[in-house]
Amino acid sequence: MVVSRRSFMLGTGAALTGVAFAPSVLGAPGASAAGGTPSWLADSVLYQLYPQSFADTDGNGIGDLRGIIEHLDHLQWLGVGAIWVNPVFPSPLTDAGYDISDYTGVHPRYGDEQDVAELVEQAGRRGMRVLFDLVAGHTSDQHPWFLDSLQNDQDHNYIWATPEQLPEDGSLPEEFVASPGPRQGAFRKNYYDTQPAINYGYARMDPAEPWRQGVDDEGPRRNREAIFQVMDHWLRLGISGFRCDLAATLVKDDPGWVETSRLWGELRERVAQSHPEAVLISEWGDPETSVPAGFDADFYLPVNGPGDGAPWKSLWHENPFFGAEGTGTAKIFVDAFTTATEKIGPGRIMLPTANHDSANRLNDGVRTPEELPVAFAFLLTWPTVPSLYYGEEIGMRMIEDLPEVEGSAGRQRNRTPMQWNDGPNAGFSSAAAEDLYIPIDPSEDRPNVQAQRDDPGSLLHFVRRLLALRKQHPELGTQAGVEVFSDGYPLTYLRGGRFLVTANPRREEAAVTVADERLAGARPVEDSGVRVEGEVITVPGFGYAILDLQG
């Protein structure tokens, strides 16, 4: 596994329940611990697109906002409800745009603010919302805030240590970088040296680190206001909310994330007053902590939260349940989901298969294309909010040994250009192949949207049917309960008292007993060859079924 340099460790978080599994009903409607009822996001499907790699309209080899606009029909046809666009802001691009030099601008390679406005308008006409990234923890070292801070030793927008506060032997504390300008001393970074950490204060003081400021000192207070103004700017342009990058890390040395939660709660309250429909999604990985802090939802991720990312990893990565050998278990995920949902209510947990960071694609070089439908049968019928990474709907591959670009640090393998057709550069760009942001998948049989649109039996059509089914039947959404009959092979559960889902991601067939008299008259909604004999359901290798028990 490539470990993202932007990943962050929170510790183990809430422990897994460890109790013996018995069928239980979750997801009864009601307010969550965060207060209020779930937002529109709870009934949506999020589609993450990496703008550099989605579609290039000006022939420079890099995707742009107009490319997104021109492919909104694909997303509408697919059935997604919201799109999350990775950063498009001005940046020197040492971390692919997560090093921001202007929070309220647009990098010229993507377009301009008018393109953002058109994207929002055109998406809205198609029933979709647009979310942006909010990178609140750090800026680029080229941001005017930091350039000003270099000139003024009374500026507290960033965490600075003066020469007198630093070790006498000339060494620097961990995570500190020597000043590159007139200001003496060193600043604290977030991850790359080019990403100075914004000063939101420390939850605890420490005489050994005299540079620490409290969360309510002038600098941290001013920064909280500045970040709200950034959010307000984009929300007024029609953006529907934010995926909040590294949300758990703003306040430093914060046991239990008490002050970090207070910070986000304050921002949540202010956003709700001005933009009541806006949503905040955290990159935290621990919904039990982040949702009560004020977020509408949080992702299960390869790091943080229960078992340091165990719910996600146990499904997709480390001895995964969705693996042909059949040696994994879904119990880790089910237990974590059960515990969190009982605490925070339904519709608050998001589950991706992949992302731009350290979450691998489903088609990862180990799983084969024939294994993908069963993964989607689960993903789109379990009561999490699904998150689709661009290209997953056609089974795009993770590509190893690609050149590093803009601080990708191995993550370029998940960032290859979208494959639209079988033309040059897979329809992504008219640029010469050597000028592409990242090389295209070199395989001659790489999947593409057009070919799969023309094939009713394709993965793309299957994903589309599942999204339509989920939208048509609330029993398959996040607000309906789930009763689990088996968390082994095949994973088998009842949604909303109506739809029985069974998924067998191993190579060998598997069987389960379900004591429900309606099974004999069940109507297959999606079925890959499942056999029902009395109370026994036998599922072929890599097989699945969605059975309507109401016939």
UniProtKB/TrEMBL annotation:
Residues 48-419 form the Glycosyl hydrolase family 13 catalytic domain. GO terms for biological process: carbohydrate metabolic process. One of its GO terms (molecular function) is alpha-amylase activity. Residues 1-22 form the signal peptide. It comes from the Bacteria. Its EC number is 3.2.1.1, 5.4.99.16. SUPFAM superfamilies: (Trans)glycosidases. It comes from Saccharopolyspora gloriosae. This is Maltose alpha-D-glucosyltransferase/alpha-amylase. Keywords: Glycosidase, Hydrolase, Isomerase, Signal, Transferase.
